[in-house]
Amino acid sequence: MRNAPCPLSAILEQVSESKKYRSIAPQVVARIATHEWSLSRNNLKTTLKETKNALHQVAGAYFRASPRYETWRTALENGEKESVLPEILASHASVAERDLESLPAFYSQIFAHLNAPKTVLDLACGLHPIAFAHYAPAAPSVTYYAADIYTDLAAFLNTAFPLLEIQGRAFTADLLAEEVSTTLLEEVGEVDVVLLFKILPLLDLWDKSASARLLDGLPTKQIVVTYPTQSLGGNRCGMSRNYTQRFTELTANTGWQITPLEFPKEIGFVITK
Q1: What confidence score (pLDDT) does residue 1 get?
Q2: I want to staple 235 with a disulfide (CB 3.0 to 4.6 A). Which of 51, 78, 157, 231 is the partner?
């Protein structure tokens, strides 16, 4: 049966009724819904179910509970940074995997291989910018741009940055969109370094060509890529070896300079083009 047009407005409306997914950027929901519609053979119920499953996989699984943005914002405004910071960072699984005590060394190792960046772009940032603002020795000297698929997260970061004395701003971006490099160039221009922390495996789940396309097109000369060495459930199952092989495939024949990095729960690479 020939596919009928995807009823995007109906799907977006129903997704917006879900507290868990209503703040995901509409362009991300639309792309996923269109894909699921083609697989479901025009079945609206199945499309909606699979769209929500996909949204959980790419984003929702990383928040351990509903973010308390208003509470956190109020605490920061009241000068309670030291007391609220652990709660903020613990709420996002990817950020919480890094021990807070090890974060200064984590950033120092990365920046030792960078060309004294003045502008940083953090893609699929989650709540990592909060950790960077507090623990990165270079934080006061850079302009920091952060992008994620959550509109409410971007709004929170835009109010938190001045309170944490960070210059920069946050916005939404869909890293799987074919025109994402052009969009990023229009949004922030050329930057000194792009951070891609633990996001490439998720892109691979959806589009095996997306990671190479993103790496090649980013408006920067240096990129920091990291991969997790264990799943959210704590399973390692050869992840370090597999991701090292995958990264080697992505960067083969590019002529880029690659510097490997190793951390307690993730592996990393600095790309210099």
Answers
A1: 45
A2: 231
pLDDT in tens, 200-210: 998 998 888 99
CA distance 239 to 265: 11
Cβ neighbours of residue 71 closer than 8 Å, sequence gap 6 or more? 84
Pick the more confident residue, 215 or 14: 215
Residues in the chain: 273
Q: Tens digit of pLDDT for each residue in 95-117?
A: 778 888 889 999 999 999 999 99
Round to whole Å and give the CA distance between 92 and 63: 5
Mean pLDDT (the chain, rounded): 90
The CA R_g of the chain, rounded to the nearest whole Å, is 19
233 CB-contact burial (10 Å; exposed 0-12 / middle 13-18 / buried 19+): exposed
* DSSP per-residue codes, 73-136: HHHHHTT-HHHHHHHHHHTBHHHHTS-GGGHHHHHHHHHTTS---SEEEEET-TTHHHHHHHH-
Side-chain half-sphere CA neighbours of 78 within 13 A? 10
C-alpha 1/C-alpha 254 separation (Å) is: 43
DSSP 52-79: HHHHHHHTGGGBSS---HHHHHHHHHTT
